[in-house]
Amino acid sequence: MSVLDEFRLDGRVVIVTGASGGLGAAGARAIAEAGAHVILTGRRENLLRARVDEITAAGGSAEHRVLDAVDEDAVATTFGELAHAVGPFDAIVNNAAQAHQAAVLDVGKADWDRILDVNLTGTFIATQAFLRHRRNDRSTSVVNISSLAATVGVRGQAAYAASKAGVVGLTRALAVELAREDVRVNALSPGYFATDMPGDVLADEAATTALLRKVPQRRIADPAEIGAPLVFLISDASRFMTGAVIHFDGGYTAL
């Protein structure tokens, strides 16, 4: 097998949560391009359908399921039905998340609970369901999407930062626990991408200028750029990597 062949995902079944837009949609497109059958999940069916249409129009293989990441029963049922229909899973990308921007004294318990529930508990629920229906005759991969906010202080993001730091801790714990079962668990920690999530910052010229001073590459990433590291972490090219946290942020966390 050549080096480039190791990055191929032909014949694999990959779930991407939170895939109706942003990094989830961009990642799903790249994973399908690498040869996998991709299952996109999220709460907005019209957007999921559009993403699946884009993938299939480009020659890829994809389908979608409307799913709330924190509905444990629905996740368990849906994953079971999918495994029965398309076969056991090779990988999951836990991308479903919500942003939250507020001064610490303005963060209510309901806000805190919601962000931790979606970003951290949702990742745990989906991972459990994936493990119950994973392929067991070759290496499988869990990729958790964290954030630079898990590593560096970001003003007004107490709940979001705590949830993403929790994702990093969960990643490392599961990597150790599952290593001998040939399940790799890694985290990808993106910086600022041109998506809806940092939209308020990017819509403000002064805020964007201030942000770029903290990014050594002096740019905001295009969502399509998330595809290559995701394919790497799912593929055999990363078969000796587990428990890693990859910062994909233009050098932000290097400062």
From TrEMBL:
Keywords: Oxidoreductase
Domain spans labelled Ketoreductase: 12-191
SMART domains assigned to the protein according to its UniProt record, in alphabetical order: PKS_KR
InterPro entries: KR_dom (IPR057326), NAD(P)-bd_dom_sf (IPR036291), Sc_DH/Rdtase_CS (IPR020904), SDR_fam (IPR002347)
UniProt entry tagged with the keyword Oxidoreductase: yes
Top-level taxon of the source organism: Bacteria
Keyword Glycoprotein in record: no
Family stated for the protein in its record: Belongs to the short-chain dehydrogenases/reductases (SDR) family.
Name of protein: 3-oxoacyl-ACP reductase FabG
Native source species: Microbacterium aoyamense
